[in-house]
Amino acid sequence: MKKIGIMTSGGDSPGMNGAIRAAVRAAINYGMTPYGILSGYKGMIEGSIFELKHSDVSNIISRGGTILQTARSLEFKTEEGQKKAVANLEKYGIEGLVVIGGDGSLSGAKVLDEKFGIKSIGIPGSIDNDIYGTDVSLGVDTALNVIMDSIDMINNTASSHGRTFVIEVMGRHCGYLAVMAGIATGADAVIIPEVEPDLAGIAEKFKKRAADCKTRNILIVAEGAGSAYDFGKKLQEAGTFDARITVLGHVQRGGFPTYFDRVLGSRMGAAAVEGLMNGKTAVMTGLQGNQIKFVPYEEVFSKRHELNNNIIKLLDDLA
Amino acid sequence: MKKIGIMTSGGDSPGMNGAIRAAVRAAINYGMTPYGILSGYKGMIEGSIFELKHSDVSNIISRGGTILQTARSLEFKTEEGQKKAVANLEKYGIEGLVVIGGDGSLSGAKVLDEKFGIKSIGIPGSIDNDIYGTDVSLGVDTALNVIMDSIDMINNTASSHGRTFVIEVMGRHCGYLAVMAGIATGADAVIIPEVEPDLAGIAEKFKKRAADCKTRNILIVAEGAGSAYDFGKKLQEAGTFDARITVLGHVQRGGFPTYFDRVLGSRMGAAAVEGLMNGKTAVMTGLQGNQIKFVPYEEVFSKRHELNNNIIKLLDDLA
Amino acid sequence: MKKIGIMTSGGDSPGMNGAIRAAVRAAINYGMTPYGILSGYKGMIEGSIFELKHSDVSNIISRGGTILQTARSLEFKTEEGQKKAVANLEKYGIEGLVVIGGDGSLSGAKVLDEKFGIKSIGIPGSIDNDIYGTDVSLGVDTALNVIMDSIDMINNTASSHGRTFVIEVMGRHCGYLAVMAGIATGADAVIIPEVEPDLAGIAEKFKKRAADCKTRNILIVAEGAGSAYDFGKKLQEAGTFDARITVLGHVQRGGFPTYFDRVLGSRMGAAAVEGLMNGKTAVMTGLQGNQIKFVPYEEVFSKRHELNNNIIKLLDDLA
Amino acid sequence: MKKIGIMTSGGDSPGMNGAIRAAVRAAINYGMTPYGILSGYKGMIEGSIFELKHSDVSNIISRGGTILQTARSLEFKTEEGQKKAVANLEKYGIEGLVVIGGDGSLSGAKVLDEKFGIKSIGIPGSIDNDIYGTDVSLGVDTALNVIMDSIDMINNTASSHGRTFVIEVMGRHCGYLAVMAGIATGADAVIIPEVEPDLAGIAEKFKKRAADCKTRNILIVAEGAGSAYDFGKKLQEAGTFDARITVLGHVQRGGFPTYFDRVLGSRMGAAAVEGLMNGKTAVMTGLQGNQIKFVPYEEVFSKRHELNNNIIKLLDDLA
Predict the structure, then answer these.
(1) Quick check: do D3-139+257-302 and D141-254 share a fold?
(2) Are residues A250 and B165, on separate chains, in Cβ contact within 8 Å?
(3) I need a surface site. Which of B125, C21, C46, D309 has the fewest CB within 10 A?
(4) CATH 3.40.47.10 fits C3-139+257-302, yes or no
């Protein structure tokens, strides 16, 4: 393999730049020429492809987002779009891809592999930690620290006023961010998609706390479980709590990468290139324990990343 | 004066703990006994009053919010409520007050001074910077750094996607936070209550940027000028921008105090006690240049804190 | 088991407070009474022991250091000291211990178990990541983020001046912090105890960079490999580099715990109490992959925590 | 004036990039062409001069250090060096300069003005806050927040061990950073060049605290007053304190600019260009209260920036 393409796709996540940097430098070390594909499959179709030199990725490891940008592409879902994309790869002589993104992005890579024989290795980039086959996806650690810092600050004002706050965090259909943030901030309750919400129980708990002169309450809601506004209303109906609502929003996605995400991105980026070198394709780099393993796309798509029950229980035990 | 009461009232703001600490220790240095009044005028009415020792305020200078807590009190707006409050002050022998809070809080202190002869010195605590008589209120610096950090993060994801973001910041009827954050983050446009919004002009500007391949746009909206959701909608009607909305919310209020707010709180807290010692009353500590001055309540309420026109112009010039 | 003692010992590390909080609350949930032992074995000998209530550990999860304080105790190394300590535990009816600290601290627990039958479960608290049996010790993640932030800042000024910086980081006899920080910050070279330093090679590399107009160099030195001042001098002897030296010092130990260390502390604290409940003793909680396992003290002391060779290689490949 | 040069010189300080960005954009707004001069007077002599476009300064406002780099130039102190520098300015048709740096940098600009008629406006960039004519120099606010965060962290570990720490901060011959950091962190004592150190008094104070069971002590030393190591030794000689020493070092200079330094840099950069436009020369932009004023170089060099006595007293009163 002489030329490889590197791209980020879907939602951006912190650490992607570390993965890009590592893939570029590993490729150069192996004597390959790395190319950047701008804006994911959209750029692949439009031919936004350019060589990446060693110095092009200097000093990017500390930056949030992705220097290769990202976009969603409807055209790539069509046969015609895919053919355009493949034609562009051929034009540049690109034989293999490093695809950094969520499951939608890896699905695209799977299609290119199966239908057109384009080799690829995926890197799980997603703050939601909803991808099967890796203990943790690129960006989760940074997102959780951003969420934690935000909730610590809200906690300051909540404590000063003795108020109830309902805070909505990201995570799509997955409660990972909510639960982990809940443990880390000492939240009083968490509502997640994986568990039927017990509003009455939460209201009861808050009343007990109030009887104990603890009028500050923090309830974290995972977006996949519903809206913080709705739960805030229901909570008020269930009791007398005048809850304030905060939707943390896009700050969760845009954090400056932590040590963990910089190292994870570096390891996965280098491993992906090494995998391509060794003829691997249609696999994703997964962090399993302390090791980077290759997980077949098949397996990635066949299962869901489950939330550990012990972790859910831990939050309740410590609150 | 032998005994003074210290309280925080209205919305909490970072730096209040530094002011409390300084007031307590300055009072002790002058041989006075400082008392904490919990939850502002509510606690004054309810008699939640207790002595504060030197060590009670150890290590609080770095904490957000206010250890004395704060609340709004409807009862204090009544003659009856005020009499209860005054009775409690008399019960504890409290002859003077340090009142830390916004203009509502200082209004209460003015009433106590005029109707009941309770001496007081106010400290302007408000992240909105809307109080006349001080260049900057306690908490503004911290709030602006929190807002800036948040917008930097949103900028990371906005740049990765080439997207338009509309970000709503606090400030009540005042555009100070929005304008300053706009300059500090290199925002593309700002909408504030002080200036008639020009949506068409902003849409035009964003179109020009898009023609220049700059599809990332950051528009900051001061809450006093309207809702980010409304302006986002209008922007979409005026062009083709698919704007994302973020309402920063209560994180803006709960930040961990910066160096500036810790020092400002310390200076104002000590100055307030010194003022009481020297027989001053019905004045607010104001930062004017590098000096702490005493500004009569009369004057504080008679004018509005105006946003410097040069600053508004600067943002447009640099964007 | 009705009463347990909780203590921190040796060097403090971020996340200890999360472990204390979890141990206290888990114990209360199991119907046990948790006691805090102040300043480790020193307090055990002096009888600084007191009950810890649920609310005593409120809001401590976000704080650095340890609320139970820590100290080194020479007296505990003597038979007489140990007997005093055991007598105090008996006085309070404490049947089991949660010991949070480094290998010295766990050695003490081992002695108490073997000689006096005092049951204990250890929690590895050490920023150096030098404890065998756990992928990562409590405090490592926070320390690495603090180190990374510091080096990012030094990088700003180094880049502005085109200067060489030699930065000394902690880690005792272990190069983990240095290597991981090196990858995360894109450092140009790292010197660690595990690998013979190649000053000539580093000087050569820096000269090549200079020929390439890259006059900024970052060299990270693990304290166990020698002093940054010495290596700076040697570097100057080996070439013409006017190196600036920074010894990061105790900031590395005092960080405010990250999400990871708060959750790890919570999990380990709860697991330790559960282990005591189930009759376990003389084992340490270890994070292995995503699981908390119990590792016998024997095993912990029998081996060294090795630095992964791939990780060392990765740094060189990406620099 | 059609063409202006912009440069940073001497030690770098946070906010310089904001000033560069503002100067570039203000110049373009006025119809002038801005040029960057690399590495200060060194680059002026070597002819490292290039046009700066609007987009060249995009996204730099949030970055530490200076994109124009900085260096010290011995050659510029010679008549010959100055002539080379002036010849290069003439070559590019540069008629005026914006010089961002400390007093050494402004001295250079004064020479160019007086001997060669090169117009210039200075911007005080220095973390030490030792420049007369401005309440605060560019970079001071960021440096103080970095120092404060570091001392907060050291405080965590100091409190856990009940230890004495001596912490050395920057500031050259000026105690500003030490005193302000002392107030902001609640330090127990500060040693600065402006006041004769009273080691015996400090040792006495620490002994009193120890008698009060407060064994944690924080002593901040300004570098201009001597070395932290020396004071640590003297303290041990004066009592029994086993003091730990930390020299904060270059992190203090390399911080990511705060809101305040970004706005101050923006204001000063724009004002400097406006001044040149209006025919001003040999003046420095100074922040006086809320206003940017022009202060003649003469005046800047004629006096010293004095530390406010009330501030020194405040620290002692509150400790």
Answers:
(1) yes
(2) yes
(3) D309
(4) no
DSSP assigned state of A106: H
User: pLDDT tens for residues A270-317?
Assistant: 999 999 999 999 999 999 998 999 999 999 999 989 898 889 999 989
pLDDT at A309: 86
Look at C185 and A62 and tell me if their CB atoms are within 8 Å: yes
B8 interaction partners in chain A (CB closer than 8 Å): 160
Categorize the per-residue pLDDT at A11 as very low, low, confident or very high, splitting at 50, 70 and 90: very high
Query: Can you tell me the distance from the alpha carbon of C96 to that of C282, in angstroms, rounded to the nearest whole number?
Result: 10
For C317, which of A29, A144, A145 is closest by C-beta distance? A29
> Which chain C residues contact residue A260 at CB under 8 A?
141, 144, 260
- CATH 3.40.50.620 matches C142-254: no
Q: Does B181 touch chain D (CB under 8 A)?
A: yes
Question: Model confidence over A171-229: pLDDT tens digits?
Answer: 999 999 999 999 999 999 999 999 999 999 999 999 998 888 888 999 999 999 999 99
Burial class (CB in 10 A: 0-12, 13-18, 19+), A114: exposed
ipTM of the complex: 0.96
Closest CA to D43 of D9, D4, D90: D9
**Enclosing H/E stretch for B265:** helix B259-277
Question: pTM value?
Answer: 0.98
Q: Residue D280 has which token pair? A: 């001003």
Catalytic residue flag (residue B128): yes
Contact B152, D62 (CB under 8 A): yes
**Chain C residues near residue A135 by CB distance under 8 angstroms:** 289-290
Packing angle, helices C259-277 and A309-318, rounded to 10: 90
Q: Which runs of consecutive H residues, i.e. helices, occur in D187-239?
A: 199-211, 228-238
Contact A126, A137 (CB under 8 A): yes
The closest alpha carbon to B146, from C150, D259, A155, belongs to D259
Closest-approach residue (CA) in chain B for D292: B310
* Residues A264, A136 contacting (CB under 8 angstroms): yes
d(CA B121, CA B102): 13
Six-digit token string for B154: 């949103």
Q: Contact, B271 vs B263, CB < 8 A?
A: no
Chain B's closest residue to D179, CA to CA, is B263
CA distances from B181 to B129, B149, B170, B178, D240 (A): 13, 10, 11, 5, 50
Residues B99, B122: contact at Cβ < 8 Å? yes
User: Domain A141-254 in CATH: superfamily?
Assistant: Phosphofructokinase domain (3.40.50.460)
The answer to whether B294 and B280 are in contact (CB under 8 A) is yes
Chain B: residue whose CA lies nearest to A245: B249
- CA dist A54 and A22 (Å) reads 10
In this prediction, residue A188 carries a pLDDT of 95
The residue type of D272 is A
For the cut 80, the answer to whether the pLDDT of residue A22 exceeds it is yes
| Residues C189 and C199 sit within 8 Å (Cβ to Cβ) | no
| Average pLDDT over all residues of chain A | 96
Backbone angles phi, psi at B295, to 5 degrees: -115, 120
d(CA D219, CA D217): 7
pLDDT of residue D212: 85
CA atoms of D60 and B224, how far apart (whole Å): 30
Token pair belonging to C251: 């900031």
Q: Which residues contact C28 (CB under 8 A, 6 or more apart)?
A: C34, C54
Say if strands B244-247 and B164-169 run parallel, antiparallel, or are unpaired: parallel
Domain ranges of chain A: 3-139+257-302, 141-254
3-state SS assignment for residue C207: helix
Q: How far is it, in rounded angstroms, from Cα C273 to Cα C57?
A: 16
DSSP β-bridge partners for residue C246: C167
Which tens digit of pLDDT belongs to each residue from A53-101?
999 999 999 999 999 999 989 999 999 999 999 999 999 999 999 999 9
